[in-house]
UniProtKB/TrEMBL annotation:
Pfam families recorded: DctP
CDD domains documented for this protein: PBP2_TRAP_DctP_like_1 (cd13666)
GO biological process: transmembrane transport
Record has Signal as a keyword: yes
UniProt superkingdom: Bacteria
Organism placement in taxonomy: Bacteria, Pseudomonadati, Pseudomonadota, Alphaproteobacteria, Rhodobacterales
Signal peptide as annotated in the record: 1-26
Keyword Transmembrane helix appears in the UniProt entry: no
Protein name: C4-dicarboxylate TRAP transporter substrate-binding protein
Keywords: Periplasm, Signal, Transport
Compartments (UniProt record): Periplasm
InterPro entries xref list: DctP_fam, TRAP_DctP_sf
Cellular component aspect of the GO annotation: periplasmic space
Length: 359
């Protein structure tokens, strides 16, 4: 009894506990949350900071006997863009937000929207399609827990991808040999143009464009504006590679399980709400981005439907190749890619070229 009294007194003396550090024996909890990208220029991180975090804080305070606070580390201050998955797994972060594009091995198949470019241009339609695939193929959700000790709280994405360059171009042939940066899974999109793909990340983009490491960026307008890429690369061409639902918000499984059940439920519910508002948030960011780029003096142009369909057709074998690659890695690649193509086919979206895994 004496030992229990000492332990209880110690717990009550602690104002807050980081769940990544040990058992939670108090009514006040502190979670570490972070992302490799900064709050502001990247929509999925802004929605973490301005929606997810305050909503969890508010609901826990109003609906439970507990309180919760967050130590927020965005812009790589705790974990970089390619470190967040592992940081959540190891408990360095309790919750992490990241683009799965920076986990090309561990989350290869989760990047399936990249493998069928020129898909839904509208982010709400894209997020709905991606959610449908996750619901129909539970492996995608289960892998986070089974292999990486974390729970998927919600999905997010990028708004419609286009292309910014340091120099003007008129035909696709003008891009032959031009060095263009991208996140990784989208670099094969450049094969049609004969451009030279360069693996890169958003935080490196401005300096790399400025110094000629590459002369273009595959990028959506929200970030192209937010990271001021229009300064070294003022030519922005609307290609319509599509919106991409490839970002995840995940939580360390132990950190979640240590919380009281009512707090766990709130975090899961707010995670689902974070995903539900992602499409509209991204669409609004796309519109703001294009308006802002025009106001900043960027030169905005658009390729013709014929060039777009030709570009899409040049990637006819890409979805099937990636599905087979995933199958070979022990992942349900064919099932996921076919489900995605079927889901999009069931909407009113018309592909500029209709992909099939048999191409």
């Amino acid at each position: 009894m004496a030992t229990k009294a000492i332990l209880r007194g110690t717990a009550l003396a602690v104002t807050s506990l980081s769940l990544g550090a040990g058992a939670a024996l108090a009514d006040d909890f502190t979670l570490r949350i972070g992302a490799g990208h900064p709050n502001g220029p990247t929509v999925y991180v802004t929605d973490v900071a301005e929606f997810f975090v305050p909503e969890v804080v508010r609901r826990v305070a109003e609906e439970t006997e507990h309180t919760i606070s967050f130590v927020e580390g965005y812009g790589g201050s705790i974990a970089g863009v390619a470190e967040t998955l592992e940081s959540v797994q190891n408990g360095i972060l309790d919750i992490g937000a990241y683009c799965m594009c920076f986990e090309p091995a561990k989350l290869f198949l989760h990047n399936f929207p990249y493998y069928a470019p020129f898909g839904p241009q509208d982010s709400e339609a894209q997020m709905q399609a991606v959610r449908a695939v996750y619901d129909q193929v539970p492996w995608l959700t289960e892998q986070f827990t089974a292999e990486y000790d974390q729970v998927l709280l919600g999905l997010h994405g990028w708004d419609n991808y286009h292309l910014g360059t340091t120099d003007p171009w008129e035909t696709v042939a003008d891009l032959q040999g031009v060095k263009i940066g991208g996140a990784g899974p989208n670099l094969p999109w450049l094969e049609f143009a004969g451009a030279q793909p360069v693996q890169s990340t958003l935080p490196d983009g401005y300096l790399s464009l400025q110094t000629g490491v590459y002369n273009g960026w595959l990028m959506f307008p929200s970030a192209y504006l937010g990271f001021r890429f229009y300064e070294p690369a003022p030519y922005y061409t609307l290609i319509g590679f599509g919106a991409m639902g490839v970002n995840a918000l995940t939580m360390n499984e132990n950190s979640l399980n240590r919380l009281p059940e009512d707090v766990q439920a709130i975090i899961l519910e707010v995670g689902a709400a974070y995903e539900a508002q992602a499409g509209a948030s991204l669409n609004a960011a796309q519109e703001r981005g294009l308006t802002g780029l025009a106001e900043a003096g960027a030169t905005i142009s658009e390729i013709s439907p014929e060039v777009q369909s030709g570009w899409a057709e040049s990637l006819a074998t890409f979805p099937g190749q990636q599905a087979a690659e995933a199958d070979g890695r022990g992942m349900p690649g064919t099932e996921v890619m076919q489900t995605y193509l079927d889901v999009v086919a069931g909407t009113d979206y018309v592909w500029p070229f209709e992909y099939s895994l048999g191409n």
